[in-house]
Amino acid sequence: MQFSSSLLENAVNEFSKLPGIGKKTALRLVLHLLKQDASFSREFGEIIIKMRDEIKFCQRCFNVADSPVCSICASPSRKQDLICVVESIRDVIAIESTQQYNGVYHVLGGIISPLDGIGPDQLNIEQLINRIQKEETQELIFALNPNIQGDTTIYYIQKKLQPSSVRVTTISRGIAFGGELEYADEMTLARSISNRLPVESYMSK
After folding, report:
1. For residue 23, what are the domain limits?
2. Do residues 118 and 111 make contact, with C-beta atoms less than 8 angstroms apart?
3. Which of 36, 65, 106, 130 is 20 to 30 A from 47, alpha carbon to alpha carbon?
4. Which of 91, 61, 79 is nearest to 139 (CA)?
5. Of 54, 76, 92, which one is at a domain's C-terminal end?
């Protein structure tokens, strides 16, 4: 692309660094901003800066939050003894959109994947184990992507929990093996949570 303005080119280059945004889409977004009032672009930029500077991660579950503890963990209407273990914040959003789950979460920040250089020490696994030991957790639901890495992570955490008396389950195979949670439709995801299985029967399949 040839640009008559280095300012325009710099803006396009920055937008194109975002995931899923190519140069053409970045140009379209930048040109859209140019058509708006200066106040729109200024407010847009201020919101991004404020989000980046002030957003926090929940000290309890590692979900995004506006304060030290996220709104889900702080809600008196949620079952605090029911923890859903997910890979990422996007999975929390996906499950919340089903409106079928009323427990709390624990975001691992990834899954065990030796080929990608990701081991247990790089994830929020020890924090989960400590949390279960300190809190009166009744059930742990694994809602990890149904693939080899997800199964490896479940197996590792399950072994770390022994001989804990906490009930350990996983979402049912309504989510196809090899699929990703965030792309599942809400009905399928809701059924997978409602029809969760004991981890022992899931891992033996």
Report:
1. 6-54
2. yes
3. 106
4. 79
5. 54
